[in-house]
Amino acid sequence: MGIMVNSNKIQILVTMLIFPVKAYRLNSLECYLLKKVEDIYLGSGYSFKRWPEIYFGNFEDFPSIKLDQDKNTHLDNELYFYNIDYLGLYVYNSTSEGHIRIFIDRIKYCASKIANNLNLKVDVVVNDLQTIVLIHEIGHWLTHSCHVKNKKIRLNGFSSQEKIIKETLAQLTVFWSIMKMKNKEIDRLRMIFDYLVDRQSNPYKAFRELGNKKTYVKTLLKRYGYIADEHIFNFGYDFNYLLYGDIVFKKKKAI
Hints:
The protein has twelve helices and five strands. By secondary structure, the protein is an alpha/beta fold. It has one domain. A hairpin with a 2-residue loop joins β4 (about 90-95) and β5. The protein is globular.
């Protein structure tokens, strides 16, 4: 989930310097997967010169924002602690790119549950979960601030988009990052991602409705661009357009 804040981005980041959070350091797998994500988006009408600022720490170590106020009060509710955007956040301003927060305390708590249920080592699940959360939030950053066409419109309109649209693109970014890959490490990461999705609320599961069409990267990003240009924004129709394209408005075969 992307959280819009009214504060100036620079003020937020300066404030962070007095909090015990650290710059997130990518591991080798994350570097590889992000290069794949970069190639996908740069080949579909997106552009950027550098990755966003990414910060790593306990939830309460970060400067508070409006939707951070519930803190850890919902750790007994699976819809919260299995929620990717409970484990990390993309925090942004409507007119400029934002930054990413990775909440290690929440990730460790969630990882302990997953490790126990899947019979995996906790530290292994922590690492994989961090990667999943990171790429999900990178998906928000890309679809918010890395457009080439109509960038101003798409920046300003991001906060008005339906949650199901934003979460579908972020979940697809995770899916695309490991698409057509198969080895022990990727298979485990995919298993953990699927385990999370099974336990998440509808906006995070909706991308599965695409079925085999999840692999239609250029088509889906083109449709998303149309939605981001505010050509639709009729709640309930945006997601159908993402799924079926012009069949929503015309009687013709989808994709």
